[in-house]
Amino acid sequence: MRQLSTIIPDADVLLGLEPEELGAKLLFILRETREQSPMFHLSHIEGAITLANLPVPDYPREKHPEIIRAINEAWAWLTAQGLVVSAGGDSGDQGWKVLSRRARRFEDESEFADYATARLLQRDMLHPSIASAAWQSFMRGDYPTAVFQGMRQVEIAVREAAGLPQGDHGVPMIRRAFGKTGALSDPDAEEAEREAVANLFAGAVGSYKNPHSHRNVPMESAREAAEIVMLASHLLRVVDARAAAKAGRDAS
């Protein structure tokens, strides 16, 4: 088994990794050795990686307990994600594991990183209006569509909350809605703050919705798409708050 110290020679760097980051390193070490040994056991991995039984260990001996704990956390994450599963039968009862079908499909660590990022985009964290369509597109790997759906919903929500005509769209409409006298402008905020909010919405729609409306824009990074969809979700919640404040002012 290729040792983790070959990939991460510095113990402090290893200990600074999150469980999913260290899990990725472990996963690809296991993939490399699968042909020789399709089954593996956590206790053997601990011994092989930390080299605790050698006179000159790869990592300082005083850090072995912390390294073992980090490995266990990464192992638990891989298990929870269904990437490491029981070998089945008597071997499984004794704690032996194998790589899942999904784990065997990863070609490289960039694919794994996209998978891990996708798992971070939790559906229940998204605004209800994009929690279905945009999330489903994202999980299918159709990142341009997910981004477009999220930002298109922002545009629709702004137009409806501001009471603007259906024909109004894009950055000019956003500017009208959040302008100094716009329906979604906060009259109690400083002028600079009102302008900043208008710029935020106009920049988001202009950068991430309009290009996807007019042409095919490559977007292969799950991380980038997730960040933009989350931005759309945040903007939608801002619109909700501004619409509620507008309704309160209109009622008074």
What topology emerges from the helices and strands here?
Layout: H1 4-7, H2 11-15, H3 19-33, H4 42-50, H5 64-80, E1 84-86, H6 89-93, E2 97-99, H7 101-105, H8 109-120, H9 133-139, H10 143-162, H11 170-178, H12 191-214, H13 222-251
Provide a compact summary of the structure.
By secondary structure, the protein is an all-alpha fold. Helices cover 64% and strands 2% of the residues.
Q: Helix/strand-derived class?
A: mainly alpha
The tally of beta strands, per DSSP, is: 2
Strand proportion, as a percent range, falls in under 5%
* Number of domain units: 2
What is the oligomer described by this structure? single chain
Q: What is the CATH architecture descriptor of the largest domain?
A: Up-down Bundle
Spatial order of strands in the largest sheet: 1-2
Which fold name fills CATH's third level, the topology of the largest domain? Four Helix Bundle (Hemerythrin (Met), subunit A)
The largest sheet, given as strand count, sense and whether it forms a barrel, is: 2 strands, antiparallel
Helicity, in percent? 55-70%
Q: What's the Cα radius of gyration?
A: 25 Å
Annotation field: number of helices: 13
**SSE order, one letter for each helix or strand:** HHHHHEHEHHHHHHH
Distance between the termini: 72 Å
Shape: elongated
CATH class of the largest domain: Mainly Alpha
The low-pLDDT segments are none
Mean pLDDT: 84
